[in-house]
Automatic annotation (TrEMBL):
<keyword id="KW-0949">S-adenosyl-L-methionine</keyword>
<comment type="similarity">
    <text>Belongs to the class I-like SAM-binding methyltransferase superfamily. NNMT/PNMT/TEMT family.</text>
</comment>
<dbReference type="InterPro" id="IPR029063">
    <property type="entry name" value="SAM-dependent_MTases_sf"/>
</dbReference>
<dbReference type="GO" id="GO:0032259">
    <property type="term" value="P:methylation"/>
</dbReference>
<protein>
    <recommendedName>
        <fullName>Phenylethanolamine N-methyltransferase</fullName>
    </recommendedName>
</protein>
<dbReference type="GO" id="GO:0008168">
    <property type="term" value="F:methyltransferase activity"/>
</dbReference>
<dbReference type="InterPro" id="IPR000940">
    <property type="entry name" value="NNMT_TEMT_trans"/>
</dbReference>
<keyword id="KW-0489">Methyltransferase</keyword>
<keyword id="KW-0808">Transferase</keyword>
<dbReference type="Pfam" id="PF01234">
    <property type="entry name" value="NNMT_PNMT_TEMT"/>
</dbReference>
Length: 131
């Protein structure tokens, strides 16, 4: 898997979602990206709901008009363990906050899927209630 991944990934770019221009425009087509994927990132790098909202708004600047955002994230999570005894804080969000944040940032919600974690899926590395 590692060899295949190295053969298809051409570059890793620095992104700072807390900047109004999170990625250097030289790496994007002039019209913007067709699609962005954020997987467990925005809630992990945001200190609170307002900073999550700002980050969500900032990444919208990377999308072309009519582009898509696939947002995957944790619900109800306040921490995750980066290593033994290293608890990394996360802004805990619920479904209504995520929907309100998307709307406030100008996104049109096309589909929302919520997965609630059953007790047997909770292994102690975080306090997530759903995805």
């Amino acid at each position: 898997k590692a060899t295949r991944l190295r053969s298809v990934v051409s570059d890793v770019l620095p992104v700072d979602v807390h900047q109004s221009c999170p990625l250097s425009l030289e790496f994007l087509p002039p019209s913007g990206a067709d699609c962005l994927v954020s997987s467990f990132c925005l809630e992990s790098v945001s200190h609170d709901l307002p900073s999550f909202n700002h980050a969500l708004g900032h990444i919208s600047s990377l999308l072309k008009k009519g582009g898509y955002l696939l947002l995957i994230g944790a619900l109800g999570e306040s921490f995750y363990m980066g290593a033994p005894e290293l608890y990394i804080p996360v802004v805990p969000l619920d479904e209504s906050q995520v929907c309100a944040s998307l709307k406030a940032s100008g996104y049109e919600l096309l589909q929302l899927c919520i997965y609630h974690l059953s007790p047997d899926m909770k292994v102690g590395v975080d306090d997530t209630t759903g995805v």
